[in-house]
Amino acid sequence: MAGSGRRPEHRGPPELFYDEAEARKYTQNSRVVEIQSQMSERAVELLGLPRDRPCLLLDVGCGSGLSGDYISEEGHYWIGMDISPAMLDVAVEREVEGDLLLADMGDGIPFRPGMFDGCISISAVQWLCNADKKSHSPPKRLYRFFSTLYTALLELITAQAMRAGFTGGMVVDYPNSTKAKKFFLCLFVGASGTLPKGLGTECADGEEMHQAKFTNERTRFRNAKGKSVKKSRDWILEKKERRRRQGKEVRADTKYTGRKRRPRF
Hints:
14% strand, two-stranded antiparallel sheet, 7 strands
């Protein structure tokens, strides 16, 4: 990631400060446009992107798309996210080439792991240092932003390691757990090593479980609508299996699992 910025001098969260009037004023200011272009150029330069192919970049706090204009001029693709609807409206009116997303970076990067080749942020990340709401904790919001950004850039990290001569890849422990999931970059020198299996990728009976993959397909369970009947044996077994995949302790399956008990008097 490459970016720059300074702590804002004005008060209030960006989604409120940049209303329609301020968004247009910001975008039409020739000095602002010049500065944004210069910082965007330097940020992209610092990424050290390959020259032989276009890359997909994430522009955090893209605003009205001024920094995205430079990315497009360099022949790259980009997706911009911003918390200000007014800024994004101006970007749409300007017909920027990138895709736009209304989102709060303090809530994390809402994209799948390894999606982007790089990320830039011009005059935006410093907003996370402000507590604009009672529920806002700057340290927590900053951690959420950087931890999810790291995940979104994993492919870039792996690709550069492979380019340097290493073999190997990414091992994911407990891929279906939001809390226990961990990413490990395993690199080998010389003879190609066998990539270890991640923890939580095997079922209790020893059968191999496929690691989570990001596809357009979703697993469906069984009933009239494609799901198991709630509280049935199949439903209970599926629920226990999901908890095993998340790295949680679950009792072993027996012939009594899911069996209805007689009522007590």
